[in-house]
């Protein structure tokens, strides 16, 4: 069957069968930034946003995105544009090690900070629970997320 | 040197990682690459009666089918050569490759696998470590005597390797000691679970294999693939893309030889990537182990003598580092405390299970867990304070560890004092029934002494280019550490130093990203080459400035004359001038660990004989145990760690956070379960990894205790923070519940069982 949706602002039309995971289309049409970590919905490396909500694209049926807006890591900062505040904070805070989980983490944090501009530490940790990071022990990821919220409070 | 060292530079590879543009091993492919799938054994032990691949060969889309006949070589990771690419007529574990197929599509490859005809005759499997050593047990490798080894070591039957250390008159001390305490501890397999699975892309071109693979140790993979394929190492070229985590799991060759064999047969590139289930079932985890300890102590708590038997599971063959690191248990048991008389025997045992391998802290964490629980037991017997017994026996500067190596710079007492100072008041969870406990554990750990070569050149634009085979596995050792060291040496900004990605054709030997050695080993090699390049720069600049070399100074990307502020030549000008006069500016540098005096006579079968650039640590934990559910909550955690010299403090903190949380996984959650040789945990659904909600607050204090042979004094930092975690958590839980624990992980069920036993004993 055919599936039409918007991926990072561009129209995509793809031929899929009933079980094609969204991850396949995202990697085919946007780039390899979205990672296949576990393929079973546990690690969050494959997180993308569907109408602003994070989903595990390795399990998410592509058929469900018909007519909807999908965003992957490639949409967060244009290739020739500066990094987004979340990306910038993660690097500044030393929160990136191997980086395999990081595209998924960026998507989860971006979605959270778009909804709430001052989440508590507890809230950040709860949102991140679906993003397994085997390297960092999470502290610097959490600190970086909180640093974005404090930075955005400062007067411009 | 100012302005670069000790600063929190952002990683040079960071932008690509946060943008999603970095190409990892799992993302890499080549034009017209075929997809490979592996036929893996479904029984733990059997003889192959018939293997017929002719139907598979003829299936649509199939380009190559490979079996043992295509890869006859025997190899093993460094120590013992007992492994083949494909089962050689005998199956030794569930998951062992029997054949592999390369086809146009994954579906075609899977269909071809299903068409392979296999007839087996079952053999009696061997699973239990003690059972394996009994004389009547079937041999996993009946040909064990014929296998090549790197050094001689006691081996026999299912005892793949034995390493032992003996000092003093152990038996005499035990015969007269006031108190003798005995214990046994067990730990399970822990899986590295890097987010990126193993992957390899190989092609065969001009008589050589070119392999792109996310490996921690490119030169080892080159050597291993060559041996397994029966070709010279120079016929293999390993190129390393971005690596998505390793933790020891990507040191050894894994999928590379399969990809090579298929690529040659198919005449096309072949890509192979593990599924998560294959990853869990066949990508070698930390070994399960049994530690038996017996200690003689004086009435005032002095350790007089200790005996240990450590059994660790090699699995079906010696891929991975379990054998190579067999002597780590003796060194770890006798490296933190003063043990004047010791008999330590470490046995690596064959079983019909998937092979085990290095995982951050190789062979160490379960020994430290055992030693520390055992010390608490001794303290209980003596009615002595748990901290006091540690302070009384911990090694001080100038004292010798069990191998006779003198630890001149030991700061274990400082580390203990530091964590004590850091252990303030914890906020309790509010559960009125919760039981609370604390513990403190000291640790001496190692920096891996492996060698490194580096090439450094001055580029025509004045940048410094380091060509190295050091793999950046995420620690930042390459992405920041080496760059910061070299930038400091040349007085150029961090951004002006480039380190090329590992390629065994271009770079000199490097002993791999393991045991916290990259910043030390490659850092030293790069500094050695840099010093030579610096001399060449000054030489050329002296000519250009018409000045004496002794009066020159290198800073801010230019060479100037001291005291004459406006006479300068930029590095780009120096490079340009050199091209057609002295020739391009470049040099090779190298590093080999300086010899460390120790007593080789007390060891047998040891490949790892001493602690290079020893580091000293103390960890503190406070936990809460819910007596109704058995759930353990870590309220607070503190680490004091000797890092030699902190090149990039932020990156070091990141390593400590990550190591502690992996250690918590080993202590509380992770258990790669096997049943009848079958790995039950085939995914992250049942194999429980720590999440953001499981990471407790971690306070860190870096102790700078410079190592004279480290680059600017640096020592290894990334591996040790994992090593004592299970021990300190185990001791704190035992303190909370008032009864010892003897096996890992401390699941709620095990904690409840311990509490139930205690209540039963009390009535
Ligand atoms: S790859 Fe989708 S959750 Fe792990
Ligand atoms: S940075 Fe490696 S998994 Fe998160």
Automatic annotation (TrEMBL), chain A:
The family database entries (Pfam families) matched by this protein are listed as:
Fer2, Fer2_2
Task: Look up the coiled coil feature and give its residue ranges.
Answer: none
Tell me which species this is from. Answer: Amycolatopsis methanolica 239
State the name under which the record lists this protein. Answer: (2Fe-2S)-binding domain protein
Which molecular function terms from Gene Ontology are attached? 2 iron, 2 sulfur cluster binding; metal ion binding; oxidoreductase activity
- Tell me which domain of life the UniProt entry assigns to the organism this sequence originates from: Bacteria
Which InterPro entries does the UniProt entry name for this protein? 2Fe-2S-bd, 2Fe-2S-bd_dom_sf, 2Fe-2S_ferredoxin-like_sf, 2Fe-2S_ferredoxin-type, 2Fe2S_fd_BS, Beta-grasp_dom_sf, Diverse_Oxidoreductases
Ordered alphabetically, the record's keywords are:
2Fe-2S, Iron, Iron-sulfur, Metal-binding, Oxidoreductase
CDD domains xref list: fer2
Keyword field contains Iron? yes
2Fe-2S ferredoxin-type domain: residues covered: 1-76
Tell me which Gene3D superfamilies the record gives: 3.10.20.30, [2Fe-2S]-binding domain
TrEMBL record, chain B:
User: Which Pfam families does this chain map to?
Assistant: Ald_Xan_dh_C (PF01315), MoCoBD_1 (PF02738), MoCoBD_2 (PF20256)
This protein is called what?
Aldehyde oxidase and xanthine dehydrogenase molybdopterin binding protein
Query: In which organism is this protein found?
Result: Amycolatopsis methanolica 239
Q: MF terms per GO, please?
A: iron ion binding; oxidoreductase activity
Q: Note the InterPro entries from the entry.
A: Ald_Oxase/Xan_DH_a/b, Ald_Oxase/Xan_DH_a/b_sf, Ald_Oxase/xanthine_DH-like, AldOxase/xan_DH_MoCoBD1, AldOxase/xan_DH_MoCoBD2, AldOxase/xan_DH_Mopterin-bd_sf
All copies of domain Aldehyde oxidase/xanthine dehydrogenase a/b hammerhead, residue ranges:
19-124
């Amino acid at each position: 069957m055919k599936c039409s949706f918007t991926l990072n602002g561009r129209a995509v039309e793809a031929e899929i069968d009933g079980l094609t995971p969204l991850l396949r289309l995202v990697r085919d049409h946007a780039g390899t930034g979205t990672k296949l970590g576990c393929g079973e919905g546990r690690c969050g490396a494959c997180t993308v946003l569907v109408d602003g909500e994070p989903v595990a694209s390795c399990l998410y049926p592509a058929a469900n995105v018909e007519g909807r807006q999908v965003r992957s890591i490639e949409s967060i900062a244009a290739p020739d544009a500066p990094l987004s505040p979340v990306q910038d904070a993660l690097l500044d805070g030393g929160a990136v090690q191997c980086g395999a989980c990081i595209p998924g983490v960026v998507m989860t944090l971006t979605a959270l900070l778009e909804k709430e501009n001052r989440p508590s530490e507890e809230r950040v940790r709860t949102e991140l629970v679906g993003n397994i990071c085997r390297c960092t022990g999470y502290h610097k990821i959490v600190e970086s997320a909180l640093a974005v919220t404090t930075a955005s409070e400062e007067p411009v | 040197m100012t302005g670069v060292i000790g600063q929190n530079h952002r990683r040079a590879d960071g932008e690509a990682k946060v943008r999603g543009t970095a190409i990892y091993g799992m993302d890499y492919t080549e034009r017209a690459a075929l997809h490979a799938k592996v036929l893996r054994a479904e029984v733990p032990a059997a003889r192959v009666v018939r293997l017929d691949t002719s139907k598979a060969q003829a299936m649509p889309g199939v380009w190559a089918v490979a079996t043992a006949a295509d890869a006859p070589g025997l190899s093993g990771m460094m120590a013992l050569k007992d492994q083949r690419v494909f089962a050689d007529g005998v199956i030794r574990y569930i998951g062992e490759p029997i054949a592999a197929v390369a086809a146009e599509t994954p579906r075609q490859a899977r269909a071809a696998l299903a068409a392979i005809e296999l007839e087996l005759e079952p053999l009696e499997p061997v699973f239990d470590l003690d059972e394996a050593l009994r004389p009547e047990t079937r041999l996993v490798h009946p040909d064990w005597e014929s296998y090549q080894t790197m050094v001689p070591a006691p081996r026999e039957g299912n005892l793949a390797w034995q390493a032992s250390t003996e000092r003093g008159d152990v038996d005499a001390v035990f015969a007269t000691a006031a108190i003798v305490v005995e214990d046994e501890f067990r730990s399970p397999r822990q899986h590295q679970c890097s987010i990126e699975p193993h992957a390899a892309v190989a092609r065969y071109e001009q008589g050589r294999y070119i392999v792109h693979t996310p490996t921690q140790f490119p030169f080892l993979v080159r050597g291993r693939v060559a041996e397994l394929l029966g070709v010279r190492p120079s016929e293999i070229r390993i190129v390393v893309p971005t690596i998505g985590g390793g933790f020891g799991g990507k040191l050894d060759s894994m999928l590379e030889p399969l990809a090579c064999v298929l690529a040659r047969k198919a005449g096309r590139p072949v890509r192979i990537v593990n599924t998560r289930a294959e990853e869990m079932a066949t990508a070698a985890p930390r070994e399960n182990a049994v530690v038996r300890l017996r200690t003689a102590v004086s009435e005032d708590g002095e350790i007089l003598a200790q005996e240990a038997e450590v059994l660790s599971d090699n699995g079906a063959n010696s891929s991975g580092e379990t054998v190579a690191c067999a002597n780590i248990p003796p060194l770890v048991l006798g490296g933190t405390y003063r043990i004047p008389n010791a008999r330590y025997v470490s046995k690596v045992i064959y079983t019909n299970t998937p092979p085990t391998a290095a995982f951050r802290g190789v062979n160490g964490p379960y020994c430290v867990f055992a030693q520390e629980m055992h010390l608490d037991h001794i303290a209980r017997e003596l009615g002595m304070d748990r901290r006091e017994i540690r302070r009384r026996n911990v090694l001080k500067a100038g004292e010798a560890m069990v191998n006779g190596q003198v630890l001149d710079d030991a700061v274990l007492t400082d580390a203990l004092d530091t964590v004590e100072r850091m252990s303030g008041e914890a906020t309790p969870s509010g559960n009125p029934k919760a039981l609370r406990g604390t513990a403190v554990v000291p640790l001496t750990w190692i920096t891996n002494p492996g060698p490194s070569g580096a090439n450094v050149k001055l580029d025509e634009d004045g940048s410094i280019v380091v060509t190295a085979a050091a793999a950046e596995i995420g620690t930042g050792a390459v992405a920041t550490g080496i760059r910061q060291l070299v930038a400091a040496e040349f007085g150029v900004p961090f951004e002006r130093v480039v380190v090329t990605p590992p390629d065994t054709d271009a770079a000199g030997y490097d002993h791999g990203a393991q045991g916290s050695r990259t910043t030390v080993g490659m850092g030293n090699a790069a500094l050695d080459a840099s010093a030579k390049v610096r001399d060449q720069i000054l030489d050329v600049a002296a000519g250009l400035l018409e000045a004496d070399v002794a009066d020159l100074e290198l800073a801010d990307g230019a060479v100037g004359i001291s005291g004459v502020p406006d006479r300068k030549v930029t590095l780009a000008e120096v490079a340009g001038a050199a091209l057609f006069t002295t020739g391009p500016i470049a040099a090779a540098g190298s590093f080999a660990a300086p010899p460390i005096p120790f007593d080789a006579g007390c060891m047998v079968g040891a490949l790892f004989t001493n602690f290079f650039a020893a580091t000293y640590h103390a960890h503190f934990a406070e936990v809460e145990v819910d007596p109704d559910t058995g759930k353990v909550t870590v309220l607070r955690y503190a680490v004091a760690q000797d890092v030699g010299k902190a090149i990039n403090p932020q990156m070091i903190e990141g390593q400590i956070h990550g190591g502690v949380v992996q250690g918590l996984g080993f202590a509380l959650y992770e258990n790669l379960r096997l049943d009848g040789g079958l790995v039950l945990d085939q995914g992250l659904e049942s194999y429980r990894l720590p999440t953001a909600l499981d990471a407790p607050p971690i306070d860190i204090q870096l102790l700078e205790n410079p190592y004279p042979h480290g680059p600017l004094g640096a020592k290894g930092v990334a591996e040790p923070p994992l090593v004592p975690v299970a021990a300190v958590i185990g001791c704190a839980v035992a303190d909370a519940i008032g009864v010892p624990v003897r096996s890992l992980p401390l699941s709620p069920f095990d904690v409840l069982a311990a509490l139930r036993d205690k209540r039963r004993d009390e009535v």
